[in-house]
Amino acid sequence: MNIKVAVNGYGVIGKRVADAVRAMPDMDLVGVADIATDWHVRTAAGLGIDVFAATHDARTAMQSAGVPLAGTLPDLLDQVDVVVDTTPKKVAATNLQAYRAAQVKAVFQGGESHATTGHSFVAQANYATALGRDSTRVVSCNTTSIVRVLGALQDADLLARARGVLIRRATDPGESHHGGIMNTMVPEGSIPSHQGPDARTVLPNLDVVTMAAKAAHTQTHNHYWTLQLNRPASREEVLEALRAAPRIAFIRMADGLTALNTTVELMRDLGRPRGDMWEVALWEDVLTVERDEAYLTYQVYNEAIVVPETIDAIRALAGTVTDGSTSIKMTDEALGMRREFLPAPVRATTA
Amino acid sequence: MNIKVAVNGYGVIGKRVADAVRAMPDMDLVGVADIATDWHVRTAAGLGIDVFAATHDARTAMQSAGVPLAGTLPDLLDQVDVVVDTTPKKVAATNLQAYRAAQVKAVFQGGESHATTGHSFVAQANYATALGRDSTRVVSCNTTSIVRVLGALQDADLLARARGVLIRRATDPGESHHGGIMNTMVPEGSIPSHQGPDARTVLPNLDVVTMAAKAAHTQTHNHYWTLQLNRPASREEVLEALRAAPRIAFIRMADGLTALNTTVELMRDLGRPRGDMWEVALWEDVLTVERDEAYLTYQVYNEAIVVPETIDAIRALAGTVTDGSTSIKMTDEALGMRREFLPAPVRATTA
Amino acid sequence: MNIKVAVNGYGVIGKRVADAVRAMPDMDLVGVADIATDWHVRTAAGLGIDVFAATHDARTAMQSAGVPLAGTLPDLLDQVDVVVDTTPKKVAATNLQAYRAAQVKAVFQGGESHATTGHSFVAQANYATALGRDSTRVVSCNTTSIVRVLGALQDADLLARARGVLIRRATDPGESHHGGIMNTMVPEGSIPSHQGPDARTVLPNLDVVTMAAKAAHTQTHNHYWTLQLNRPASREEVLEALRAAPRIAFIRMADGLTALNTTVELMRDLGRPRGDMWEVALWEDVLTVERDEAYLTYQVYNEAIVVPETIDAIRALAGTVTDGSTSIKMTDEALGMRREFLPAPVRATTA
Amino acid sequence: MNIKVAVNGYGVIGKRVADAVRAMPDMDLVGVADIATDWHVRTAAGLGIDVFAATHDARTAMQSAGVPLAGTLPDLLDQVDVVVDTTPKKVAATNLQAYRAAQVKAVFQGGESHATTGHSFVAQANYATALGRDSTRVVSCNTTSIVRVLGALQDADLLARARGVLIRRATDPGESHHGGIMNTMVPEGSIPSHQGPDARTVLPNLDVVTMAAKAAHTQTHNHYWTLQLNRPASREEVLEALRAAPRIAFIRMADGLTALNTTVELMRDLGRPRGDMWEVALWEDVLTVERDEAYLTYQVYNEAIVVPETIDAIRALAGTVTDGSTSIKMTDEALGMRREFLPAPVRATTA
After folding, report:
1. Which of A52, B216, C133, D267 could form a disulfide with D272 if both were Cys (CB 3.0 to 4.6 A apart)?
2. A294: domain range?
3. What is the pTM (predicted TM-score) of this model?
């Protein structure tokens, strides 16, 4: 029997999770809850998704605005096994009580603190520890990418120390008509930025320090890492370690993928929903290894990277799949995730 | 029997035309031709599209780069009824000779001059005059939008004179890592800008003057029009005239669609390929009519708006559908074009 | 005896007014008042400007932060003839009571409503009507430019009707790390935008309608006008009318001044304080006249254009100069305002 | 007797060097040479600077355009001791022959290779080795900042290894109407980027690796450094080392200087010509030291930072001042360079 899923909060992450749940063979999306009355939630209704009012006040406002409602959040929770909470920061802690009262398991997002649920989740790193829990937190987009990449090197017993600079997109493209930054960069005011410590909620032994800043673009973060290896290694060894971990895709400057927007354009060309990229896109031909130091840069599509992790977290809480790599494989196949975006070149033949 | 179609030039417009041809029930895409070796054309191969080398030099380079080739442009032309030429500006005039020699009908794009083919095309305005021709030119994105909107008012016998200000996106989002403008605007150096005269290649009686500028964004043009009506009219009369014409969709600030990027986000949410919008998106609740003057603003998704026109042009040249409105209907249904993007509000009921 | 002036609010406009007052031979800047404790107001102190706490709470905070204080706002008002209020919107109405109680005349800015003072001011249009008043409002940057340019054509009895599109910078360059818009445009939700009606607070007989939008840049607004003349006129007649009015400077695409940022760069090169441009910069070689219609575009440096008007308003309220054109001349000479930014070309000679 | 100086190339750097030379008590600007006919060079003429045609062809074009000419480049070289070559990249090597033939010493910019002159210059690091030479190269803006900051730590015998991420402004603000990048970042395709090796042309023992990218803004580069110290040190020790070196100014997030544009706004407020900042602006309160690692970020005003170095290079080649620190002091005083931009807070007193 399929896992019955609710999404509370139909925003940047929530709408993507809703679509991904609908794409999974072992899950049913029962509905989404929200408090808004604008085009966003009305679009959900147009896509055949049942919409529920998240609060009593919202119900009145949504009805007045003509949003078709299937009920309220309690009605939705009555029908589901797992709720994914993608409400804005700080609302979640309160919601958790309601979810527990309704005996619904809950997946939160990286805006919440680790303490709220006591468990932070990245599928490849700690799927097993989420089994049977009533709640977990999928870590943020930046932290997820760090765990994927540095975790891969840690798994290969190559990594001694990681020092990263995270250049973040300033705001999301659909929100960029307010709250943006223009023609500037905004460095974070303290070092380390929170992403380093946050990765240790999943990989406690990571020696990692991050500096962060916002730059004047709206699509995808861009990380730069200086890695101290625990021994001299070849470039191929580092690549092998990265290839052994899931959800890292390899791109190349030599193919003309030379800027953040080019990769985004490629996603659109591949027919991805919303042009989403769930993988960390790592520039293979920029990766440099010098004796016992490695340098690399990758791109994090912040709107989508946590979506597959959220799907896995649903399964882990539901307990329907006990093996993390099986869940990852199910998710990745259903979404169409890839390790390479371009077909391999054919061997040139004489004409 | 389906129309067999080639696309020469797999760029911003070409790749969209290729997809649209594949979506049409009465057309087959035989292949695309290009001269590049980078990710763009290799993506086409990955999507199951046959790729041909557009030139002899390109064939060698593409083979060396491992791009799988189905042949060269002459091979492609041998197999098709109509070629859509989406090569860069000024290459087209030369190509026309080759197409004529191969007895293939040809659709060009708005970057070419009217004189090259002697016919300029917007489906709703002059489909019939393209029937039986060996070539035509689909006018540019801006001109297409002008013909759709002003043509609608002209058809309703409402329009005396139109004065427009066209604020253009500076470059396309996939190209914006070179050639962009930053933190500025660039006004065109002469008035009228070319779009006004260009609209008269399709609607010769239009009294229109345009000023234009580039602004510092990458997605969609934004037009502002002051319209002198030929008599006092009500806002509803103007709206009716616009609703009577195809390919204009109505959006509303009141729904939260308040900026160019919000509409783009909506297209992504609707699951449109590449987030494309083929319609002119006109702000219904901004449209203002004062006695015999009307003021309006709309948004032109420049990467996609000419795609349905190109599809219609293929049919007109092929002569398989003799009635323009039938072709428009076929195209619009196959693409999923709409007049409203949001479902109509339900009547609020008592709870 | 010099006019003693206070500036209340040391922000984008206030700091420029303070500098301009210091540049005038007939004015003394007694001090500026503010409530902030950050670099902005501390810079003022470093420039030798006496700083006063605008409120009691602010005084405590400023003292704690180590801002050197010369006193509080009442102390400042005690010493001046005129106060220029450049506090944020809506604070002003309350302040007016305090200024009246202190018997200090007050100049407000365009963010306030006309009703607050009952008088709106642009020097070239209505200096005389401000003489002897206790307060006035210098209209906003956009409105000031409209009055300068359209007023010039009205004075020449050429203008029947003006329809404008105002593309505004989204936020100021010093503030652009929050509140900006990114990669988009935001059209105003209703037509006419407020600037048209606002210009009629100064020029009541103007037949003007404006549409407005914000674009993704931070420096200078850019206006596009379609002007219905009341008779056919030559381009030279229109230019003559514009040249007859003050504070319009002429720039040319042919000189390479082809974009908003180029003009800003020119101001920096001319050694202007902060790169300011007090003039409306009108593209002379873009101006087009067709029979009885004229089309033009100009650039409004929103951070500075109201500064000379504010200086004139000080004089008008103080009553020390009764003739507007005399005041304008004094202001313009002291600031170094110009009609042409480049030296006239020399006649080419044989070498 | 003052050093007689020419500037060949009146662009972003050249015009600033020209102004700085005019500000020095021991130098005379004889004139500038260029090949353009547009507003840029005509502005120079308006500022009272003699303009010379850099080539024979340019002379004809400039005369036709009405640019007042004082002669040609050979005429200019006849009258000077030192020429600063700020022509575009790759022109310089050819020019060097002409300068040598004219027996004029020459200062080149960082766009040229070290090999062209055989000497690379940063005043605080190697002034003495430039004495008596006929030419040198002032290293690029990024490299200059690296030598200032890392050199300071090396001088204090604190630095073992430096790993940096350089986020560059995409283009200059006056040029940003063409060639910009929009809503993206462009990582450099290879690691290390050239700035690290380039710093070793001045500080040969530096262990430094840099990664670089362009971000979507036009003013100032932003560097992030992870520094391996050769022993555990306190934050105050690191700060002391930085304070001991010249041309590093300290800014603080706590003062509200929280973004690249805020610092630029501060420069404008300080009355700097063109809003220039010649100092490296280092965030003092972001600097973090953990045992034997230090992390810091600073801002490089790329249009101006090499100007004081160029002035010192002129003196070194001319040989009029033999001590580097004396020259630095002369330069810095004449320009008004600072270590702190804000006045020190006053001790709060009771009111």
Report:
1. D267
2. 141-300
3. 0.97
